[in-house]
Amino acid sequence: MRIFPEYCVSMARYNAWQNKQLRAAFDTLSEAELRKERKAFFGSIFSTANHILWADRMWMARLGVGEAPDGDHLTLTPTPAVWAGERYRTDAKLLHWADSLHAVELKGDVEWRSVMAGRDFTHPFDLCVMHLFNHQTHHRGQIHAMLTAAGATAPVTDILFMPEDGPWL
Fold first, then answer.
1. Upper half-sphere CA count for residue 159 (Cβ side, 13 Å)
2. Torsion angle, CA of 93/54/140/88, rounded to 10 degrees?
3. C-alpha pair distances (Å), 149 with each of 6, 15, 37, 142, 165
4. What are the start-end ranges of the E strands in 73-162?
5. Closest residue by Cα to residue 155 from 12, 38, 17, 21
6. To the nearest 10°, the Cα dihedral for 19, 20, 24, 30?
7. If DSSP states are collapsed to H, E and C, what string results for the chain?
8. Model's pTM, two decimal places?
9. pLDDT tens digits, one per residue of 44-53
10. How far apart are the first and last CA of the chain?
11. What local confidence, expressed as pLDDT, does residue 115 receive?
């Protein structure tokens, strides 16, 4: 794999822009609607949002950017308001990391033990970075579908429509 810091900056901005839109969309629904079982992979909009936040923090920790999250991936934050604040802080940290990244830092391997898989993994650092951003996009697509089904206005998700100059958060 070969990615550059500019890719990380673009994807961190895209992530923050998407999550800013999700926070606004969540504000249009009641907490009951956000927690409603929707037969999605993680059940509800809120559980899926918690999973993304948890996984972002887990991958960031594996990449040397912060601490691994405590707790369950579906209940990481107790309320949508707490999620919104934690999401904002995590996105800011990811943006700062990407903005200060040097190409040499994208080389090497990432080693970790997966509790869920019960084994150790080693993968190239740049592949793990790509996975972090791809994972976010994948599960936000699920949230997009659930928001649409709930009657909310779902965010614009095409990266080509992302504002050139922010604001990202």
1. 13
2. -30
3. 35, 22, 12, 11, 31
4. 109-114, 119-124
5. 21
6. 30
7. CCCCHHHHHHHHHHHHHHHHHHHHHHCCCCHHHHHCCCCECCECHHHHHHHHHHHHHHHHHHCCCCCCCCCCCCCCCCCHHHHHHHHHHHHHHHHHHHHCCCHHHHCCEEEEEECCCCEEEEEEHHHHHHHHHHHHHHHHHHHHHHHHHCCCCCCCCCHHHCCCCCCCC
8. 0.96
9. 999 999 999 9
10. 29
11. 81
- As a dihedral over the C-alpha atoms of residue 123, residue 9, residue 97, residue 46, rounded to 10 degrees, the angle is -80
Residue type, 13: R
Q: What gap in Å lies between CA 168 and CA 97, rounded to an integer?
A: 14
